[in-house]
Amino acid sequence: MTDARPLYPLVFIGPMGAGKTRIGRRVAKALDVRFFDTDKMIVAEHGPIPEIFESRGEAVFREFEKEAVATALAERAVVSLGGGAVLHPQTREALTGHTVVLLNATAEAVAARINTSKRPLLKNGTGDWQRIYDERRAIYEELATTTFDTSTEPIERIAGKIATWARGRA
Ligand SMILES: Nc1ncnc2c1ncn2[C@@H]1O[C@H](COP(=O)(O)OP(=O)(O)O)[C@@H](O)[C@H]1O
Ligand SMILES: O=C(O)C1=C[C@@H](OP(=O)(O)O)[C@@H](O)[C@H](O)C1
Ligand SMILES: [Mg+2]
């Protein structure tokens, strides 16, 4: 069955450390389109993420994030969201009809790779990762139009596979 959804914006969702930022950037390069990372947009406008969580709270961060997502989704681009962006109902609604790629990874793979100090929700270590993932799993799976697992292969190989898949979709 062919997928009638437009390829762009091509959106990456999934848990922290799955590789949305790194893989998204590589896929954009391979497809020769622009790349937006909503966390980077928020940092550019409002400052470092841990400071936003600390001084304004998660709810304010989610509002900033909703705005960044809406801006990025208007572009013909690859767009990587932060792991919790899908918690906002307006963001879930905004994703309707778009091509949404879920990047999944196991807790073990993520524990070996991520810098928890930059992720305020993991400041007690990666033990919280599984709980947060379990809370969000159903949302990710409902929104995703395709899924790739990033646990075992290097970033370049996964990005290459996704770019090949995307070319086949275009
Ligand atoms: N497939 C992978 N194999 C090994 N390390 C990875 C892989 N994907 C991502 N990483 C590493 O994990 C960290 C988090 O990646 P990032 O793209 O920021 O994830 P996300 O945006 O989903 O939180 C980075 O240090 C990155 O180099
Ligand atoms: O899952 C989350 O709630 C978060 C994920 C982070 O982005 P990445 O998924 O790119 O790490 C960042 O938006 C913030 O620390 C909160
Ligand atoms: Mg990221």
Description:
With 170 residues, this protein is α/β, with parallel strands linked by helices. It has a single domain, classed as Rossmann fold. Helices cover 52% and strands 13% of the residues. A five-stranded parallel beta sheet has the order 2-3-1-4-5, with helices on both faces. Helix 1 packs across helix 8, helix 2 packs across helix 4 and helix 3 packs across helix 4. The mean pLDDT is 95. Bound molecules: adenosine-5'-diphosphate, shikimate-3-phosphate and magnesium ion. The site of adenosine-5'-diphosphate has 14 residues, from helix 1 and helix 8. The site of shikimate-3-phosphate has 11 residues, from helix 1.
Describe this protein with a few key phrases.
8 helices, 170 residues, 5 strands, five-stranded parallel beta sheet, binds adenosine-5'-diphosphate, binds magnesium ion, 52% helix, binds shikimate-3-phosphate, alpha/beta, 13% strand, Rossmann fold, globular
The secondary-structure element order is EHEHHHEHEHHEH
How many helix segments? Answer: 8
Strand order of the largest sheet: 2-3-1-4-5
- Tell me the strand percentage band: 5-15%
Beta strand count: 5
**Contiguous uncertain segments of 5+ residues:** none
Quickly give the CATH architecture.
Answer: 3-Layer(aba) Sandwich
CATH class: Alpha Beta
Measured distance between first and last alpha carbons: 14 Å
Pairing-aware structural class of the strands and helices? alpha/beta
Quote the CATH topology: Rossmann fold
Number of domains: 1
Fraction of residues in helix? 40-55%
Query: What is the alpha-carbon Rg in Å?
Result: 15 Å
* CATH homologous superfamily placement: P-loop containing nucleotide triphosphate hydrolases
Please tell me the overall pLDDT.
95
Outline = globular
Bound ligand species: adenosine-5'-diphosphate, shikimate-3-phosphate, magnesium ion
